[in-house]
Write a structure and sequence with these properties.
- The chain starts with a strand and ends with a strand.
- It is built from one helix and seven strands.
- The longest helix has 8 residues.
- Strand 4 and strand 5 form a beta hairpin.
- The protein has one domain.
- The chain is mainly beta.
Amino acid sequence: MWVFDDDKVGLVREPFVAGADKIIDRLVANIPNAEAGFNLLFSARPFPGYQAKFDWQREEYGGNWYYNAELNIEGWLCPALFKYFHEAPKELYAQCKAIAA
């Protein structure tokens, strides 16, 4: 199971579930030892080096479903999304990369 910490917003071992875990599996496939940790960057706007674009699909159970057409995969982001955005963005851009040594 993939989890993340972000002390700045009070999240510790917050899990990625409901397809978001499968998305991460795909995005970190080429990162050596990703299971020991990696950096995930995300934004509501495109940025240099982003790997994947996700389009908002619908709200459910306080979270939001996003879909990536290139990977043909959908994942649910829990209400922790609102620690970063006031409302669910219509698009999310993401990049997973190795932690700098």
